[in-house]
UniProtKB/TrEMBL annotation:
Gene Ontology terms: biological process: carbohydrate metabolic process
Coiled coil residues, start to end: none
Top-level division of the source organism's lineage: Bacteria
The protein's assembly and partners: Homotetramer.
Keywords: Flavoprotein, FMN, NADP, Nucleotide-binding, Oxidoreductase
Family stated for the protein in its record: Belongs to the ArsH family.
GO molecular function, one term: oxidoreductase activity, acting on NAD(P)H, quinone or similar compound as acceptor
Presence of the UniProt keyword Endoplasmic reticulum in the record: no
Alphabetized PROSITE patterns for the sequence: NODB
Protein name: NADPH-dependent FMN reductase ArsH
Cofactor names: FMN
Length: 239
């Protein structure tokens, strides 16, 4: 089928950009990729925490700088003011990060409330700052029984909602209680190899996108909206 009429009468030509490969060539950062890791359980022997710790070791080996947030003491969303020390700590870490890892147990067929509470405390915007937009994300889950993908599917939806670059790979560890030794280290297995894959991919995507993240999330609709708001302010001043 051939489109004969290529006119675009509704397009604001002043705010429309044509992307070229040259637009993606930004000066490369030299600091280590900054990765924040979140887990979704307060159990004394939390397998999501153990997976996060294994992931952190791998990320350090791959040259990243890591931070693990401890959700113990984090209040329920809206139960406290955002100035609460644990909320402030979480938000500061989110702003600091260039990529994130989320790992939750599956409970009642979905992520835990502890995992969701952490994400709910992260706003889409803080003034002019969007803490998660354009940052990379890897999603993982641990299962008490057979392997399922309910949690990683939910986390993917949340990652997209938070405007994050959610990498293609993911990890779901079945019967997690069998995958760790008495020293709380993960045993050799296909599950472990998959976690290596996920961390490797996360580092690659973080290095690929972090210097171009502002450009990648620059949107036509927001440029149009900003231009309209500016015009309204100018007109008000003139009036």
């Amino acid at each position: 089928m051939e489109i004969k009429d290529l006119s675009l009468p509704n397009l604001d030509e002043n705010q429309f950009n044509v992307t070229t490969s040259e637009d993606l060539v930004a000066p490369k950062s030299t600091h280590k990729p900054r990765i924040l890791l979140l887990y979704g359980s307060l159990r004394k022997r939390s397998f999501s925490k153990l997976v996060i710790e294994e992931s952190a070791r791998l990320l350090v080996k791959m040259g990243a700088e890591v931070r693990i947030f401890d959700p113990d003491g984090l209040p329920l969303p809206d139960a406290e003011d955002p100035t609460h020390p644990k909320v402030a700590e979480l938000r500061d870490l989110v702003i600091w990060s260039e990529g994130q890892v989320w790992c939750s147990p599956e409970r009642h067929g979905s992520m835990t409330g502890i995992m969701k509470a952490q994400i709910d405390w992260i706003p889409l915007s803080m003034g002019a700052v969007r803490p998660t937009q354009g940052k990379t994300l890897a999603v993982m889950q641990v299962c008490g029984g057979s392997q399922s993908f309910n949690v990683v599917n939910q986390l993917r939806v949340l990652g997209r909602w938070m405007r994050m670059v959610t990498i293609p790979n993911q990890s779901s560890v079945a019967k997690a209680f069998l995958e760790f030794d008495d020293n709380d280290r993960m045993k050799p297995s296909g599950y472990y190899n998959r976690i290596v894959d996920v961390m490797e991919e996360l580092v690659k995507f973080t290095l690929l996108t972090r210097d171009n993240s502002d450009f990648l999330v620059d949107r036509y609709s927001e440029r149009v909206e900003s231009a309209e708001q500016l015009m309204q302010r100018v007109n008000q001043k003139e009036g």
